[in-house]
Specification:
heterodimer, A: about 260 residues, mainly alpha, MetI-like fold, about 80% helix, about 0% strand, B: about 260 residues, alpha/beta, Rossmann fold, 2 domains, four-stranded antiparallel beta sheet, globular
């Protein structure tokens, strides 16, 4: 109980300060007010106005994330197991990695249109690189002696993958998948900012254009809630799958 | 000829030469492991003892000479041996039971059977009750026992050991040496043990092959004619131990003074 209070204290203090400062220290038109935002959120959900936006954004997020993770897993694993191919491919992947993905948004709009697929592509490419690098590093880092020993004990290549490479790189894979969640959100929202007919990003953008800070913050609050929730689910899955790892000293519950 | 090589022995090293880059590591090394015998290779750290094991495991090809198993040269990864590595090297993501059963699972043994055989092997190394533990939940000695069980479980005729007890405390080491002696006698396997511990080599082996500093050559091949089982805990009570120790030690000492 004490821990719960301690954990929520900074958040409550921050909201209280915001509520009091708004209109006194800073003009409300700039920062809105927690109470206004709460009312706005209630209206949005009660009127049903927000649901179609959420449905669109949610669809883009899920598809973009899944495509990005799948491609990252397959690419990272394949390159990790094929060092020769990796030597050729790595500089190119590096170069592509260096491109600010956000700069691709206008291009993706041209390629995939203003519907959901341009946002899915943007989210997927952001997720891809993160997962790709984690999986690649994980597979490359597998203990060579362990691999040799497994071979002597009778493992063929397929068995090595299943019993050694995959579990050994699982901590990296899962970390990459967890870190990729907020990146998927960035990809989708930036895509929607750029050009869209529906979605939470469009809603935030529209609220800003109409000088409605409560609307902007309401949109951000929904995104925040989603990222925190998804992150904690991912952390839980991670702990469950990695229960073979010794608990680290000072390991935190942070997602 | 003291270094004569028996062609049909479980394992024979025939005039092995090896260099890493420009460094000569092994020079014309020949000896063999006779059937159901325990041979220890004794040498200073970094002399290339472990390199010999890697060759026997088919993980490394010698620059010259051949390694024969049952009279046939070893080609590629050798799956007809068991290895007890320096570190226990259990797979961290598998429980003790899954680790011990691993070689059987790899060979496509049915679940009911691998379960039975793994339980047996775990019992043989006194680890009952820890089947569901992950390696990090086991002590160093227990991990080592698990590693030995994982090797015994599929009954290899030839077992390679790379300083298996180096990282353990003195008491655990003695207990494991005692158990290993009993397990190997029961299994009837041939063993090649690499160590830098003279007492360990003399206590466990039927023959001790003494290697020189780099480039390693065979300095002596000493028979240890002590009766088994030997009392590992009290070497001074083993008849003939002092003489056997001295017969090995004189060669090691000779090597040391040669620096």
């Amino acid at each position: 109980m004490k821990r719960v209070i301690l954990a929520w204290l900074p958040a409550v203090a921050f909201l209280a300060f915001w509520q009091l400062a708004s209109g006194r220290l800073v003009r409300t038109i700039y920062v809105s007010q927690p109470s206004d935002i709460a009312v706005r959120l209630y209206e949005l959900f009660a009127s049903g106005e927000i649901w179609p936006q959420l449905a669109t954004t949610g669809q883009e997020l899920v598809l973009g994330y899944l495509i990005g993770v799948t491609a990252g897993l397959v690419g990272g694993y394949a390159l990790g197991r094929a060092p020769r191919l990796a030597r050729v491919a790595e500089p190119y992947v590096m170069a592509f990695y260096g491109i600010p993905k956000i700069a691709l948004a206008p291009l993706f709009i041209i390629w995939f249109g203003i519907g959901i697929w341009s946002k899915i592509a943007l989210a997927a490419i952001m997720v891809f690189f993160l997962v790709f690098y984690n999986v690649y590093a994980g597979v490359r880092g597998v203990d060579r002696d362990l691999v040799a020993l497994a071979r002597v004990m009778g493992a063929d290549e397929r068995q090595l993958g299943r019993h050694v490479y995959l579990p050994a790189s699982a901590p990296f894979v899962l970390l990459g998948m967890r870190m990729a969640i907020p990146y998927a959100v960035i990809g989708v929202i930036v895509g929607e900012f750029t050009s869209a007919t529906k979605g939470l990003g469009l809603f935030i953008h529209y609220s800003s254009d109409t000088y409605d800070p409560a609307g902007v913050f309401a949109g951000i609050a929904i995104l925040l809630a989603f990222v925190v929730l998804a992150g904690s689910v991912a952390a839980r899955i991670e702990r469950r799958l990695l229960r073979w790892r010794p608990p680290l000293a000072g390991q935190t519950e942070l997602t | 000829m003291p270094f004569d090589v028996d062609a049909a022995a479980p394992l024979s090293f025939k005039s092995i030469e090896h260099r890493f880059g420009g460094t000569e590591v092994l020079r014309s090394i020949s000896f063999d492991i006779p059937d159901q015998k325990f041979v220890a290779v004794l040498g200073p750290s970094g002399c290339g003892k472990s390199t010999l094991l890697q060759m026997a495991a088919g993980l490394l090809r010698p620059s010259g000479g051949t390694v024969l198993q049952d009279g046939r040269p070893i080609e590629g990864v050798n799956r007809r041996i068991g290895i007890v590595p320096q570190q226990a090297q259990l797979l961290p993501w598998k429980t003790l039971l899954e680790n011990v059963a691993f070689p059987l699972v790899l060979r496509g043994v049915k679940r009911a059977e691998w379960l039975r055989r793994a339980e047996e092997a775990i019992a043989a190394v006194d680890l009952q009750g820890f089947e569901g533990h992950y390696p990090y939940q086991l002590s160093g000695g227990m991990q080592k026992r698990g590693s030995i069980a994982r090797t015994l479980v599929y009954g290899p005729r030839l077992i390679l050991m790379d300083e298996p007890f180096g990282a353990l405390d003195a008491q655990t080491r003695m207990q494991l040496q005692h158990d290993l002696q009993a397990l190997v006698m029961r299994a009837g396997a041939s063993v090649l043990l690499v160590t830098h511990d003279v007492a360990e080599a003399v206590m466990l082996a039927d023959r001790v092959v003494v290697l020189s500093r780099r480039p390693a050559q065979v300095v002596a091949d000493v028979a240890i004619p002590l009766a088994r089982p030997r009392n590992v805990f009290e070497p001074h009570t083993v008849p003939g131990f002092a003489e056997a120790y001295e017969s090995v030690w004189q060669h090691v000492r000779g090597e040391m003074s040669r620096r």
